[in-house]
Amino acid sequence: MPFREVNSKMVEATVGPGQKMFSQRGAMLAYKGEVSFTPNIQGGQGGLMSMIGRRVANEATPLMTVEGSGTVMFGHGGHHIQVINLQGDTLYVEADRLLAFDGSLQQGTMFMGSQGGVMGMVRGQVTGQGLFTTTLKGHGAVAVMAHGGVIELPITPQRPVHVDPQAYVAHHGDVRNKLSTALGWRDMVGRGSGEAFQLELSGQGAVYVQASEEKL
Amino acid sequence: MFRLQGSKVLAVDMTGDAVKAKNGSMVAYDGQMAFKKMTGGGEGLRGMVTRRLTGEQMTVMEVKGHGTCYFADRASEINLVSLNGDKLYVESSNLLATDAGLRTGTTFTGLRGASQGNGLFTTTVEGQGQAAIMSDGPAVVLRVGAQYPLSVDPGAYIAHQGNLRQSFQSGVTFRTFLGEGSGEAFQIRFEGEGLVYVQPSERNTIGGDV
Asked: What is the ipTM of this complex?
């Protein structure tokens, strides 16, 4: 069930019987047909353990389940919305950037330390992602929020991409990321270029970058 | 080589050359890049002192390398300006990036500057090359001809280029003093030949309040 972009700040999703989708609570703008919205205490999929996991990881955004048949429009806070279609690969995104996603996608929580050990944890702190991030895996569509427009940059083994941690939105595919520092004596004396930390993404996939260095 | 990726991201393809950009405005790059803060905006000691004195401070970095570098700032819309030896006048806060070959400097704006809420000085960019300026909302470019002078709200003005004379126009009447002003008490009037960039949003100015 793909999302249709109404404009850059609104998406429309079609729900049919037997299909389910999750969205951030309160992000519904309008709907047509018979659609019900139930607050999802668990904050997504999985059982009680997943819920506890998310709570502990501070990746629990209030979600709701959208069921029924009809079309629903989503939008939130005037943020730009980017629709990402997943074909079997994994999307890594911060939970508070998630606007809505297909119920068929598998939701999980990833510990930043599992990618790169201690440096992974440091990276999480620097990028403001925290120690955990949300993963979505499978076939389906995800609507992600960002401040300002979003550009998609492909990552290939020959061309790693460096991203400003504050402008990073999400990435998918088989991508390794590490924090690269370009700290020099200039930064120590307060004459830095403001680009001391960068996320270096290498492998095969794509990264989404927003046109702003502000958080949501 | 400057190009726009969407309306809010500037992509610069570089092959060993350099560009000057607002400090910290890089959002992503591929290839090899080096970032260096240019003390005093690369205008030498005299330029640096002038900027300090005039309050037109801008922190600029020099980006050099091979590959594509992407710049954006606070989700502002970006406009590309090509310069062929002429001069672009722009507020330092609205300037995102320029070719390294362009010279930047400061100039006195007079009463216009004060009414814009930007101080009495503005930044000039001159030479051969491209510059990227930012606006709050998509900017319109208005052509000023000899027969067609243009009046602009000081809060919506962002930049101009060409051979233009500017004067300050005031529409203050007795109504303004009674608190019944239309909110359009001051305008900048451009005469001559050139282009003026106007944004669909107004900064807070003294003129906007009366």
From this structure: 0.75
Q: H or E element: which one contains A67?
A: strand A63-74
Task: Decide: helix, strand or coil at residue B115.
Answer: helix
Closest partner CB to A149 (pick from B6, B23, B36)? B6
Q: With beta carbons under 8 A apart, name residues in chain A contacting B29.
A: 161-162
Output the pTM of the full model: 0.80
Q: Phi, psi (5° rounding) for residue A166?
A: -75, -20
Q: What residues of chain A lie within 8 A of the CB of B37, using their CB?
A: 186, 191-194
Nearest residue of B to residue A169, measured between CA atoms:
B27
* CATH number for region A3-210: 3.60.160.10
All structural domains of chain A with their residue ranges: 3-210
CB contact under 8 A, B59 and A194: yes
Residue pair B69/B18 in contact (Cβ under 8 Å)? The answer is no
On the question of pLDDT at B133 being above 90, the answer is yes
Domain residue limits, chain B? 2-209
* CA atoms B35, B87, B73, A206: torsion sign: negative
Where helices occur in chain A by DSSP H, the ranges are 48-57, 117-127, 185-188
Q: Is B145 part of the contact surface with chain A (CB cutoff 8 Å)?
A: no
Q: What contacts A118, CB < 8 A, 6 or more positions away?
A: none
| Secondary structure element (H or E) that encloses residue B207, with its range | helix B206-209
Q: Which residues pair with B194 in a beta bridge?
A: B144, B162
B102-107: list long-range contacts, CB under 8 Å, 24+ apart.
Answer: B102/B20, B102/B126, B102/B127, B102/B128, B102/B129, B102/B131, B103/B127, B104/B20, B104/B41, B104/B42, B104/B43, B104/B47, B104/B60, B105/B43, B105/B47, B105/B50, B106/B47, B106/B50, B106/B51, B106/B54, B106/B56
Nearest to A175 by CA among A191, A193, A155, A189: A155
Contacts B25 to A, Cβ<8 Å:
194, 213
Q: How many CA atoms lie within 13 A of A22 on its CB side?
A: 22
In B20-166, alpha helices (H) = 44-54, 111-116
The more confident residue out of A114 and B84 is: B84
Instruction: Note whether A86 and A172 are within 8 A (CB).
Output: yes
Instruction: Assign domain B2-209 to a CATH class.
Output: alpha beta
For A148, the closest of B31, B39, B72 (CB atoms) is B72
Per the model's pLDDT, the better-predicted residue between A20 and A192 turns out to be: A20
- Contact (CB<8Å) B75/A210: yes
